[in-house]
Amino acid sequence: MPTLKPGYQLILDNVAKHIQLEKKEIEYFIAILQHKKIRKRQYLLQAGDICRYEHFVIKGCLRAYYVDENGFDYIVQFAVEDWWTGDMASFLTGTPATLNIDALEDSEVLMIEKKDIDELFVKVPKFERFFRILMQNAFVAQQQRILLNLSKTADERYLLFRQKYPLLEKRLPQHQIASYLGITPEFLSKIRKNLSKKKK
Amino acid sequence: MPTLKPGYQLILDNVAKHIQLEKKEIEYFIAILQHKKIRKRQYLLQAGDICRYEHFVIKGCLRAYYVDENGFDYIVQFAVEDWWTGDMASFLTGTPATLNIDALEDSEVLMIEKKDIDELFVKVPKFERFFRILMQNAFVAQQQRILLNLSKTADERYLLFRQKYPLLEKRLPQHQIASYLGITPEFLSKIRKNLSKKKK
DNA sequence: CGCGACGTTGATTTGCCTCAACGATTGTGG
DNA sequence: CCACAATCGTTGAGGCAAATCAACGTCGCG
Fold first, then answer.
1. Is the CB of A182 under 7 A from strand C?
2. N or C, which terminus of chain A has less Cβ within 10 Å?
3. CA distances, B183 to each of B86, B154, B159 (Å)
4. Does B73 contact chain A (CB < 8 Å)?
5. Mean pLDDT value across residues A95-100
6. Which residue of B76, B136, B145 is in closest CB contact with A92?
7. What residues are paired with B75 via a beta bridge?
């Protein structure tokens, strides 16, 4: 096989974690991928638009977030290299997105259009399995997050976040983490101050 | 076709919402279902055990919940007729469950064992699609719940819960709803008092 | 340079919890 | 069938976690 551009290798490896593809299937899959670069602060999706793609990040970092009526935003997901993102509700039903997705760094994604995925499911049913497994894992992770939000205090959640995503913790501005944890940036600052005190 | 017991018709209708089955496939599917009755207060699954089944509720009402180190419990899901439940993390990985599931009313479920589901996916690949869609919908619902927990106050969440699940709101004891919403029963009581005041 | 993004700190307020006491209802064993 | 306990909801006093608001320091960058 000719060597692929690095991003494409990343998505093939991602797929290969759950299903094995034939050469022909790989070619077909690669052919429906669309490559896109997004500059820092640029939108990949805006609330109100219809989300017609699933996105796989091959470079950089994105955030998916909801903006409430008062203009506050709440991050539902970060997506760095090797992660999938999108507004699933909008994608599935074709209704306007409630989420915004934008880039926190200059980024690149591979996108699959809905009609191509639907066709992919028919032509290569193994992908039904792949996305089922993807969704199951996401489901478990989200359930975990719901439980943490219900049962833990802010500093516990922050510590667990650091533990689970040490790389993200270093890579992201603090106020983005605060938004993900559901607390104010000021309060996160105070939490960190307390923690550094305790360490001594 | 001979008429089926009512619970079986319910699950077939549930499946039929997303995939169409041949007669043979229906028979095969029905054959792997296991029927079980659970009395009120009885466990369907206890934390620490391994969850080997997916459960479909055909009668009654169950709750899936996590108990923290201090003995407080947090409800992650209610399941009434026509809903699926289980501890997905345990089911997928074969590790001990972190969730408990028990019956809030005398209930009945149809269960599918993991090995039978795995075989089902191979013999009737359409079920990959079915569970993919099921998971996608669950994913969207959970994401919604995360957003509500992050962005809304307790009374807003309560009102939205009533709006979304009016039947559950009538059927469940208040303190179970409080646990689902992530507030204390006392505080829910005060919320309700305020709301009834405002209505006048 | 100057401005905007980011983080910190302190004073004050508030949403929700804790604890305790008290009815109402349910259910259960004697 | 009654007595008593357990479950469920309500109410109030007090406390704490986290939000709000405002001021200020520090970068990085156009």
1. no
2. C
3. 24, 7, 14
4. no
5. 97
6. B136
7. B65
**Which residues of A fall within a CB distance of 8 Å from B182?**
149-150
Q: Is pLDDT at A130 greater than 70 in this prediction?
A: yes
- pTM, two decimals, is 0.95
Task: At B186, list the tokens.
Answer: 């006392």
pLDDT tens-digit series, residues B28-38: 999 999 999 99
Whether chain B has a CB inside 8 Å of the CB on A5: the answer is no
**Stretch A85-93: mean pLDDT:** 98
Of A128, A136, A149, the CB nearest to B88: A136
Options 3.40.50.2020, 2.40.40.10, 2.40.50.140, 2.60.120.10; CATH of A6-126: 2.60.120.10
What's the pLDDT score for residue A198?
Answer: 61
Domain residue limits, chain B:
6-126
* pLDDT recorded at residue A4: 75
CB A135 within 8 A of CB B136: yes
